[in-house]
Design goal:
The complex is a heterodimer of chains A (278) and B (296). With 278 residues, chain A is of the alpha/beta class. Chain A has helices at 63-71, 110-120, 125-138, 154-166, 184-201, 212-218, 252-277; strands at residues 21-30, 37-47, 52-56, 78-83, 86-87, 95-98, 172-176, 204-209, 221-225, 232-237. In chain A, the strands form two sheets. Chain A has a six-stranded mixed sheet, with helices on both faces. Chain A has a four-stranded antiparallel sheet with strand order 2-1-4-5, with helices on one face. In chain A, a hairpin with a 6-residue loop joins strand 9 and strand 10 (232-237). Chain B has a domain at 94-295: MetI-like fold (Orthogonal Bundle), CATH 1.10.3720. A two-stranded antiparallel ribbon of chain B has the order 1-2. In chain B, strand 1 (70-71) and strand 2 (73-74) form a beta hairpin. The chains are: A alpha/beta (278), B mainly alpha (296).
């Protein structure tokens, strides 16, 4: 049975962090000297605990780099990333990560993949297993536990990826274009499913995408990034009621937000396109 | 549990041909069923082809020797399959023949085990440490192309006993393919898997154990199979020049005694032992790669 108590939002629990993210004067430059490449301009963002924030930008603008800095894979060249006031120095289980694709361990079963995080946290095999089952049930894949990842469809694999990240009870869920490789129907289903999981689990979500519709549908706030080197050029609040459904796509508020983001991103994409061709 | 979560999505219609997306639940096990090893028609056909190919080969060998063909290549002194078979049957009944085989297999076992342990170890260290790689790689590059036979004089001078010099030469042959394949396998580790496990709380050691080693296993297994083959022909080089027993010594001795059918017996025994031991290595490494079978 699904243990509802376990899904108490991190904000209502006192045993883990709350998930407030501060990106303070962060800029990221790769390499040194002549070959140095500036991935992002100085950026300042505060994401409140429990917020669902989408980072939207043209491809190659550095949005994934910024996410990787929050995850701890990339060290900011200037400034610092703080999660609940603590500076991020390396990746950790408090920040769950969902990648675009193929990030499950192919030699472990679905069940073992989800139980991996709890095992690393030092929980017993039985305890980790029951956590894995709980989260596989949350994403509707409990009966696929003994399959290997490659035996599942792309969408199912991503749901396992989400379950795996959540099994550590992270205060922050970082998602790097997680539905980018899925077909359109599956993507819509996954978006609804993700909102449902988020409503139950209530963690802070930072979701990177280049898809305007996806960003507007999912987010409380859409942060629009400029062409490379990226910086946040707009912070758009999406005031659509929750729970959201795909039917809202025709509502004026949705259309207006979408139109606004689209215009901004279009201008940026053109800039990026022209600079690449220059 | 909400209904929305239970909706199973339609399998994505990808451009890339995914091997049969399994979206349907597994069929319920219907009581205890006896599972016989099934041989498919294709496998049966393959076996038939192998048998046909070998028969044709032996037939050609028979015809060439029976007719004493001398057309650029001279078959006049090559023993016929029947004479070789006769010689083989005679040898099988002697104890010394089995001693030769036993001694060779013991040498292979010792050298190969050493090469496995050291080869995988060195390969893993080189794959994870740039310093180790830079220090060790030049030696591998230079020593690897030196054929086993070229090592014989020095090996005899260096090692206290003939036995140890033979084992050294055999070991060296198996070592390089194992090191290089292990290194290659470690380098194949997908970075996204390393990152994914790091964000799940994995330490450096955990990453090594749960990501790097499993990712390298298919390549390591290939290296182990290649290494087994190479160890046989290194062993033979060692046994031909020095040693009193061993199937290589047996073959070389037959040549000294101008006993043609025994030369071929020796050669074929080596061939089958090499094939058999390589097959054994593949069989032993297969369970570690079971996940690959299910995902193809």
């Amino acid at each position: 049975m699904l243990d509802i108590l376990k899904f108490k939002a991190p904000q209502q629990r006192d045993d883990i962090g709350k998930g407030r993210i501060e990106v303070k004067d962060v800029s990221i430059t790769f390499g040194k000297g002549k070959s140095a490449y500036r991935a992002t301009e100085t950026t300042d963002i505060t994401i409140e605990a429990g917020e669902f924030v989408c980072i939207l930008g043209p491809s190659g603008c550095g949005k994934s780099t910024l996410l990787n800095a929050i995850a701890g894979y990339v060290e900011p060249s200037t400034g610092a990333v703080l999660v609940d006031g603590k500076e991020v120095r390396k990746p950790g289980p408090d920040r769950g990560m969902v990648f675009q694709q193929y990030s499950l361990l192919p030699w472990k079963t679905v069940y073992e993949n989800v139980a991996f995080g709890p095992r690393m946290a030092g929980h017993s095999r039985t305890e980790s297993g029951s956590t894995a089952n709980t989260f596989l049930e949350l994403v509707g894949l409990k009966k696929f536990g003994d399959r290997y990842p490659a035996e599942l469809s792309g969408g199912m694999q991503q749901r396992v990826g989400i379950a795996r990240a959540l099994a550590n009870y992270p205060s922050v869920l970082l998602m790097d274009e997680p539905f980018g490789a899925l077909d359109a129907q599956t993507r819509l289903m996954m978006q609804e499913s993700l909102l449902d999981i988020w409503r139950k689990f209530g963690t802070t979500v930072v979701f990177v995408t280049h898809d305007v519709d996806e960003a507007v549908f999912l987010a409380d706030r859409v942060l629009i990034m400029s062409a490379a080197p990226g910086r946040i050029i707009e912070d758009v609040r999406i005031d659509l009621p929750r729970p959201r459904s795909t039917d809202m796509a025709t509502e004026p508020a949705y259309m207006q937000a979408r139109q606004h983001c689209l215009a901004t991103i279009k201008a940026e994409s053109r800039k990026s396109f022209e600079s690449q061709n220059a | 549990m909400s209904q929305a979560l239970k909706t199973t999505e339609t399998p994505p219609v990808n451009a890339t041909p995914e091997p049969a997306v399994v979206a349907s639940p597994a069929p319920p096990p219907a009581g205890p069923t006896l599972r016989l090893p099934r041989i498919s028609a294709a496998q049966l056909g393959n076996l038939g082809l192998v048998a046909l190919s070998l028969t044709l080969g032996v037939l050609a060998w028979h015809l060439l020797t029976a007719n004493n063909v001398d057309f650029y290549i001279n078959f006049q002194n090559v023993p016929s399959p029947w004479r070789v078979f006769d010689a083989f049957v005679t040898h099988v009944q002697t104890g010394i023949f089995w001693t030769h085989i036993g001694v060779s297999m013991r040498r292979i076992l010792i050298s190969y085990s050493l090469a496995c342990a050291l080869g995988i170890g060195i390969g893993l260290v080189m794959g994870r440490s740039r310093l180790a790689r830079a220090l060790i790689m030049p030696y591998i590059e230079v020593v690897r192309p030196i054929p086993a036979v070229a090592w014989i004089p020095l090996a005899i001078l260096m090692w206290p006993t003939e036995e140890s010099s033979i084992i050294y030469i055999t070991f060296l042959g198996a070592l390089f393919p194992i090191v290089l394949n292990t290194l290659h396998g470690v380098e194949q580790t997908p970075e996204v898997l390393v990152r994914a496990t790091q964000s799940l709380g994995a330490s450096r050691w955990d990453v090594f154990r749960h990501v790097v080693i499993p990712a390298a296993l298919p390549s390591i297994a290939a290296g182990l199979a290649i290494g087994m083959g190479v160890s046989w022909f290194s062993l033979l080089a060692g046994e031909i020049i020095s040693g009193q027993y061993g199937i290589g010594y047996f073959t070389w001795n037959a040549y000294s005694l101008i006993n043609y059918q025994d030369i071929v017996v020796g050669m074929l025994v080596i061939g089958f032992l090499g094939t058999g031991s390589t097959a054994a290595v593949k069989l032993l490494t297969a369970p570690m790669l079971a996940w690959q079978k299910r995902t193809r």
